[in-house]
Amino acid sequence: MNKVTTDVLIVGGGPAGMSAAVAASGNDDVRITVVDDNPRIGGQIWRAELGKLKSVEALELLALLDQQWITLVNNASVFSNDGSSVLAETPSGRIQIEYKSLILATGARERLLPFPGWTLPNVLGAAGLQALVKGGLDVQDKRIVVAGTGPLLLVAAEYLTSKGARIVAICEQTTNKKLDRFALGLWRSPSKIVQGISLRSKLRGIPYYRNAWVTKADLQSVTIQHFGQTTDIECDMFACGFHLVPNIELAQLLGCEVADGFVSVDDYQQTSISDVYCAGEPTSIGGVEAAVVEGKIAGFAATGQIIEANSLFRARKKTTAFAKALDQAFELRDELKTLAASSTIVCRCEDVQYGKLTDHDDFRMAKLQTRCGMGACQGRICGAAVEFLFGWKDRSVRPPIFPVKMENL
Amino acid sequence: MSYDVVIVGSGIVGAACAASLSASRLRVLVLDSSGIATGTTAAGMGHIVLMDDSEAQLALTGYSRKLWNTLAQELPADAEYEHCGTIWVAADEDEMNEVRRKQIVYASHGSDAEILDGRALRELEPNLRGGLAGGLLVQDDSVVYQLCATKFLIERAARYGTTIRTGTNVIEISDDGVRLENGEVIAAGVIINAAGVFASELSPELKIVKRKGHLAITERYPNFVRHQLIELGYLKSAHGSDGDSVAFNVQPRITGQILLGSSRQFGVESNQIDFEILKRMTNRAFEYMPDLKTLSTVRVWTGFRPATSDNLPYIGKIPGHENVYAAAGHEGLGITTSLGTAELLTSAILGKKPAIPIEPYLPSRTITEH
Ligand SMILES: Cc1cc2nc3c(=O)[nH]c(=O)nc-3n(C[C@H](O)[C@H](O)[C@H](O)COP(=O)(O)OP(=O)(O)OC[C@H]3O[C@@H](n4cnc5c(N)ncnc54)[C@H](O)[C@@H]3O)c2cc1C
Ligand SMILES: Cc1cc2nc3c(=O)[nH]c(=O)nc-3n(C[C@H](O)[C@H](O)[C@H](O)COP(=O)(O)OP(=O)(O)OC[C@H]3O[C@@H](n4cnc5c(N)ncnc54)[C@H](O)[C@@H]3O)c2cc1C
Asked: Which parts of A329-393 are beta strand (E)?
């Protein structure tokens, strides 16, 4: 087994992790290691772009990362902590990395909710479908309905259109009122409004319904509820995602305090455990700008560069306000709790139906009796769903947080 | 309201006692500080196994196994009762001697067991490495998903009128009843301490210590393993010493998942994964089944076996008390022996003749020694 030591260990090489690494490298005396489970650095948003040199910000960070004495470990999934070290699985076996301080920048994943038909092969997450197309799936001339909630629906629709798909409709579950309030607030966040406008113009001609949500899907169509009416829309594929869920499993394993599903941090992005910091989506869903500023603060703070960290508090105030606005604008409506029928599968790994969960009082009992959330994905998908459906909160986490080969345990 | 019996603990042992006592028309109350089957029962492996560490262990596991095989017809599908049998794996000729000894002991107990040579072993379990000497196939052993079996026992007890209160912490047991954390006192004719590893906190007369174990479970690989497989070195390594030990012990689940055990450690309080002993445990398994190495493992967890000094549970009246009984200390066999324990205790409480002699399990056996 391979064992290495570092001063600052950063888990996650997205905008938050990259920013943290660059900030930390301002202190010449520390060794910095960034671990990411993908073949390429960049996280959800920059990973695929890197070859194409699109985002100025990403390029700058990348250049800085190159210049500094920073060790990048790609293709390494951190699956557990072990004292003041983490264990990661790589294609060539397990590595153990000992650290003095740790920055968690593990990002988020898409939230999926169960409704009749959601497990059909033509039904995918909105970001999930986007990723498949990036990976080579052909959507040329495919009729696709995009539904769910959040800004990523637009991003996905735009991307799919650019790949030749015909977006039949975009259905956003939130209300006009909430969306309008959010759109107004966007003027305070210039870069985002630019992004929003250019998206909308590209999407021109595609019906964008608000107050609209899916109630069921089959192989040829989806049923949408819109202002008290149900409409069947024919399509070849259905892309449905309900905003994002933070990846907090590693923080939970470490014992970091969590509130309302997010890792609690202080002004310096430090968690309830000293020398363990957290930045980006695990602390709040606030987009790239939030990830970058939080990453910087964490990187500075973890390496004693307090003045530099302090200088970013104002910038973070803005991104935190934006995260809050996002949260309010795309809050899930209660009707979504009633979509699943008794026979609708909630936990895909263990085939657990909605009806089997309703007798239980909490997640622990449901888990033990039905094995909901105990399959290969370890509740990554159904965990967030049952939290919303039943209000269960106490989701326990056990290592490994990703499946690993037994020899790498 | 007063009860004939209050049972402290709704693990599989408390649940089995509740089902048995309420079937005999006693008014039963079950109390658990947490939820049903959330203690050691939630962590165990669910192997229903005949074991012969001692005469008394053989008698209790044999009797219990018979009760399980009868109950099997009534168990719901989610209890996943699978009559898969056990193979005790012998690595070398030394262990083959042990196979032959064990076969004779089991036969004399009326349990057929078949001796396998190396080739027969490989035919039954192709994923075992070549070169193993053989094994003993015990057809009548089974595997159960003990969590749903416990729920079934609790529901059966409830149907017979048992009251169940979870989230109710008992802080004191006396001859008259129990006292709860919230000050409430509940009177009962008989009190049963079935609090697992916490039993000695309520009844200091019982000497029960925690013996930590690790388990790992894989994704689905149907037919990779067909029987519960245990190395025969198990007896030497796991039960024989007070130090940390590991043994090859692998279980096929109906789902196709493979459950891998096991480790034993005394004197550890933390429930955290100890990656060093876990590594020893998996390496030991790879010696027998090399292809396990590449199987995808989805979860690892630990549990605490309630251990006694002679590896036998406490079943029966606690010395110095009129009405307080123990049903605790079942170590690594409590899933198996829960049903036998319940029947023995019911007989003792009702003053009936037990199906097998209860003396070896009476708490007085170790307590009066001191
Ligand atoms: C599926 C998806 C698609 C998105 N698409 C867009 C988009 O098109 N446009 C947009 O503006 N925003 C998009 N976002 C939002 C975007 O992720 C955020 O705005 C921003 O990237 C957050 O940065 P981050 O550094 O916090 O997280 P991320 O960019 O998610 O980076 C976290 C990194 O950590 C890695 N990681 C996590 N856990 C471990 C572990 N245990 N071991 C090793 N590595 C680990 C992840 O694989 C990832 O590479 C998307 C989000 C998701 C979840
Ligand atoms: C790793 C491992 C593998 C195992 N494999 C097997 C196997 O293959 N086969 C087998 O037969 N056995 C196996 N066992 C053993 C088996 O799991 C235990 O012997 C059995 O579960 C013990 O059950 P119990 O009801 O006595 O204890 P528990 O399940 O711990 O139940 C005790 C209950 O009492 C409650 N309680 C405690 N204190 C109080 C209080 N003060 N007030 C109210 N309630 C209280 C607790 O909340 C708990 O629910 C294994 C054990 C481990 C750890």
From this structure: 345-347, 352-353
CA quadruple A23, A25, A29, A34: dihedral, nearest 10: 100
CA A211 and chain centroid, separation: 24
d(CA B152, CA B158): 10
Angle, alpha carbons A183-A189-A192 (nearest 5°): 75
The set of residues, in sequence order, having a beta carbon less than 8 Å from that of A92 and lying 6+ positions away, is: none
B270 touches chain A (CB under 8 A): no
Assess contact for A230 and A215: CB atoms under 8 A: yes
CB A124 within 8 A of CB A147: no
Under 8 Å between Cβ of B197 and B304: yes
Chain B touched by A333 (CB under 8 Å) = no
Q: Is A109 in the pocket of ligand 1 (CB under 6 A)?
A: yes
**Domain residue ranges in chain B:** 3-46+146-206+310-365, 83-141+209-307
pLDDT digits (tens, 9 = 90+) for B240-268: 567 899 999 999 999 899 999 999 999 99
Compute the CA torsion angle B338, B245, B267, B240 (nearest 10 deg): 70
Tell me the longest C-alpha to C-alpha distance in chain A.
Answer: 64
Atom 47 in ligand 1: residue holding the nearest Cα:
A37
The torsion defined by the Cα of A368, A373, A377 and A383, in degrees rounded to 10, comes to -150
Closest-approach residue (CA) in chain B for A405: B296
User: Which of B146, B147, B297, B301 to mutate: most A Cβ within 10 Å?
Assistant: B297
The CATH number for B83-141+209-307, chosen from 3.40.50.620, 3.30.9.10, 3.40.50.1450, 3.40.50.720, is 3.30.9.10
From the CB of A366, is ligand 1 less than 6 Å away?
Answer: no
Domain boundaries, position A194: 112-242
Query: Cβ of A355 under 8 Å from any chain B Cβ?
Result: no
Are residues A238 and A127 both part of a single domain? yes
Residue B315 pLDDT > 90, yes or no?
yes
Sheet harboring A8-11: ordered strands across?
A70-73, A32-35, A8-11, A101-104, A276-278
Least Cα distance to A157 among A224, A214, A239 occurs for A239
Interface A–B counts its CB contacts (< 8 A) at: 75
Peptide bond into A190 cis (omega under 30): no
Decide the pairing of beta strands B296-307 and B228-231.
Answer: unpaired
- b/e map A315-337, b = 16+ CB within 10 Å: bbeebbebbebbeebbebeeebe
CB count in 10 Å sphere of residue B360: 17
Same domain, A13 and A132: no
> Do both A232 and A118 map to the same domain?
yes
Ligand minimally distant from the alpha carbon of residue A9:
1
Q: Quick: pLDDT tens for B2-44.
A: 899 999 999 999 999 999 999 999 999 999 999 999 999 999 9
Q: Are B341 and B17 in contact (CB under 8 A)?
A: yes
Predicted model pTM:
0.92
Closest Cα in chain B to A351 = B255
- The CB of A17 under 6 Å from ligand 1? The reply is yes
Q: Counting Cβ atoms within 10 Å, is residue A341 exposed (0-12), middle (13-18) or buried (19+)?
A: middle
Quote ipTM for the complex: 0.92
Q: What is the pLDDT at residue B370?
A: 42
3-state class (DSSP) for residue A120: coil
Which of B36, B38, B294 is opposite residue A405, by nearest beta carbon? Answer: B294
User: Containing H/E element for A310?
Assistant: helix A306-310
B279 — contact with chain A (CB < 8 Å)? yes
